[in-house]
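Retry 2 of 3 after timeout on previous attempt. Resubmitting structure tokens to design endpoint.
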């Protein structure tokens, strides 16, 4: 059966459903299906029952159409993402150079080697340095463009971008504001 919430009190935990061509039906908060509580004016479906005392009641109450709350702003924002890409320079050449220098110095001072031994140890140091150094890597990703709401400290998401400005709307309080576009296009 379908009806309209005539009155509901969240504090008291009960309310009444208005049914056309019938008496109003009582319902308790424990008879509501779903996580949302009804508001006055919501359209609901329910299973009609008659209590022991003969009064009409409703069980298995579920909201089918919620009435728009007065003065509630619509939510226009959607997520907008900024992409980034950069390359981390590899460290292979740096490690190779410094290990070549260190191996050559060790060979020259401590091992008292000739020029060929110094060159050979520098080459070995370079090869070892290249082996343990990191290769160049490309890093890519994206992040959502958001802003903190000054009214309620909620998260604002992008509604529009134009003339070096970004429009935001808070997902909590539905407040609008704009900021200078520091993200570029």
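Retry 2 succeeded. Sequence:
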């Amino acid at each position: 059966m379908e009806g309209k919430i005539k009155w509901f009190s969240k504090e008291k935990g009960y309310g009444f459903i208005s049914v056309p061509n019938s008496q109003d039906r009582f319902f308790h908060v424990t008879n509501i299906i779903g996580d949302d509580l009804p508001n006055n004016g919501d359209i609901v479906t329910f299973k009609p029952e008659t209590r022991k005392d003969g009064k009409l009641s409703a069980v298995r109450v579920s909201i089918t159409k919620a009435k728009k709350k007065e003065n509630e702003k619509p939510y226009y924002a959607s997520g907008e993402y900024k992409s980034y890409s950069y390359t981390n320079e590899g460290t292979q050449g740096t490690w190779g150079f410094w290990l070549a220098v260190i191996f050559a110095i060790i060979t020259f001072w401590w091992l008292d080697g000739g020029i060929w031994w110094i060159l050979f140890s520098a080459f070995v140091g370079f090869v070892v340095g290249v082996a343990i150094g990191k290769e160049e890597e490309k890093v890519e990703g994206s992040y959502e463009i958001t802003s903190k709401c000054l009214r309620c400290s909620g998260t604002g998401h992008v509604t529009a971008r134009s003339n070096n400005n970004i429009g935001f709307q808070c997902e909590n309080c539905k407040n609008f504001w704009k900021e200078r576009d520091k993200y570029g296009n």
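Attempt log closed. The radius of gyration is 35 Å.
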